[in-house]
Design goal:
Helix content: 10-25%
Number of strands: 13
Shape: globular
Low-confidence stretches: none
Structural class: alpha+beta
Number of domains: 1
Strand content: 25-35%
Radius of gyration: 16 Å
Mean pLDDT: 93
Distance between the termini: 32 Å
């Protein structure tokens, strides 16, 4: 279990006719890798997130409870296949393309529980909740069915709270300390899907 890529984004206009009231909205969903295993630059992680990362709407992203968004690299094959079929051309998304800060390997939604703690070097994080995709996710992927596909397949990723700030780098190992293990991210996703 390790970090493969760390990505950050700045608030910028996000175009797309994926909402009945907006044609352009502010968003920081466009994340750019700043630390990769080939170039593992240390990035400062504070209680409100990664240094240089921004959020456009703090009611749904960011803040203490959603400081960092983690996403399994294992799901990229699904998205590349889905979008390639939708666009009828080969799509190969780069890490960060789904709006995540941490692209990780070795942990999936069924393995991750609310309240689990992660230690990455001297940094400590806590799993808070799944990511609920919205119309901005559809706009980012240029596919109206993206949010629905994320929920249907339980490929949501999850938010983390920062308990102990510090430096993290791509390639860092993730050490998990189990929490109460009452509800996994996959189970939380299923409950949301069945609402």
């Amino acid at each position: 279990m390790r970090i493969l890529t760390i990505s950050i984004g700045k608030v910028a206009p996000l175009p797309g006719a994926h909402h009945p009231e907006f044609t352009v909205v502010p968003s920081a969903i466009n994340k750019i890798p700043v630390s990769q295993t080939a170039n593992p630059k240390p990035i400062l992680l504070g209680v409100l997130g990664l240094d240089g990362d921004e959020q456009a709407d703090l009611s749904v992203h960011g803040g203490i409870e959603k400081a960092v968004y983690a996403y399994p690299s294992e799901h990229y094959e699904f998205w590349n296949t889905l979008l390639s079929q939708e666009r009828q051309q080969t799509v190969a998304l780069n890490h960060g393309a789904l709006g995540e800060n941490l692209t990780i390997s070795g942990l999936l939604e069924a393995d991750v529980y609310i309240g689990d703690r992660w230690r990455i070097g001297t940094v400590e994080l806590a799993v808070v909740k799944l990511r609920e995709p919205c119309f901005k996710f559809n706009a980012k992927l240029r596919f109206n069915g993206a949010a629905k596909a994320m929920l249907k397949n339980a490929f949501s990723g999850w938010y983390l709270r920062v308990l102990q700030p510090g430096l993290i780098s791509a390639g860092d190992l993730i050490e998990v300390t189990p929490g109460p293990r009452e509800i996994s991210i996959a189970q939380q996703n299923k409950l949301l899907k069945n609402k």
